[in-house]
Amino acid sequence: MVYYPVSDAKLYEEIETEKPGWLITARQRRDDNVNGQALVWKDSIWSDIKPVFMRRQADKCVYCEFPLGGRSTQDVEHYRPKSRISVWPTGGTALYEFTTGGAVSNGYYWLAYDPMNYAASCKDCNSALKRDAFPILSNRGAAPLTVLKLNQDEKPLLLFPFGDWGDDPAEYFVFDGIFVRPKSGLEMEKQKRARVTIDFFRLNSRHNLLRARYTVLGLIWANVELRQTSTSAATVARAERTILQNIIPEAPHTLCARSFHELMKSNPARAVELHEEALTILKGLGYFKIAGP
Ligand SMILES: [Zn+2]
User: Could you tell me how far CA 289 lies from the centroid of its own chain?
Assistant: First the structure.
């Protein structure tokens, strides 16, 4: 997870350029929904402005950073569910020592057409995992509270790394090799948010994510070594560029790459150890069985 900062004014400007008139229609839909106290409008005009979010997020899922492919592989995600809210975690046994909010039959219907409630996400994160859930620490807000007010009052447990009204995951997470964990020394509320976000999106157990992060680790390692050992200025420059391309926000799995790059500089022996551990884990998951080392 990595942060995509943008002001609401700038986002609205980009939406207006992408689809002139969309904001006016959205405002009308919103007012109708507020007056009707339900999702009176359900048409998915949010798809019309999906490219704005895709561009801002460099074609990566807002939650898991997996690259988003063609238009069918991603959704415009409503951070706060628009039609109903179901309880999470499901299954009865409490995972946590704190409550995560109850169910609501009509959801955050007044935010269905609010771009501050949108981001682009992969089908795994949105359709398979998030669905109608929206765990919170405090009390559930009601219409017509704004996103900003709700963020303050409800204390949402899932990080939302988009926009100036969102969260910077670098304040919450650090990576140990291919695994993400809450940063040490976090205050209690931040620690809860980090834990829930990792569990909710299964950021440490989705095999495709672990595999993709391993590739990033390998790239960083190889190029840091090349930068240190090569006597060719051109090779060093190329290695430098490749490292940079893997730690900028546009790169998939940026935070993982950054953590590993930092470790390569501060404790290279540990970095190599983590890389080897990751390989062992991936082999255990069935990777590199066909023709791998
Ligand atoms: Zn995702």
Answer: 30
- Cα–Cα distance between 216 and 166 in angstroms, integer? 26
- 């904001």: which residue's tokens? 23
Tell me: the pLDDT tens digits for 48-81?
999 999 999 999 999 999 998 766 667 889 999 9
**3-state class of 104 per DSSP?**
strand
To which residue do tokens 């050992």 refer? 229
| 156 φ, ψ (degrees, to nearest 5) | -60, 145
Measured in angstroms, how far is the CA atom of residue 43 from the centroid of ligand 1? 24
Decide: pTM greater than 0.85: yes
- With tokens 């976090």, the residue in question is 186
Å from CA of 153 to ligand 1 middle? 26
Q: Other C-beta atoms within 10 Å of 206: how many?
A: 17
Closest CA to 159 of 115, 198, 120, 114: 198
Q: How many residues does the chain have?
A: 293
- The first and second tokens of residue 193, run together, are 């948010």
**61 CA from centroid of ligand 1 (Å):** 5
Which residues contact residue 262 at a Cβ distance below 8 angstroms, ignoring those fewer than 6 apart?
none
Residue 64 alpha carbon to ligand 1 centre in Å:
4
Alpha-carbon gap, residue 288 to 293, rounded angstroms: 7
Segment holding 95, helix H or strand E: none
Q: How far is the CA of 97 from the centre of ligand 1 (A)?
A: 27
Specify the residue for token string 């040490």: 184
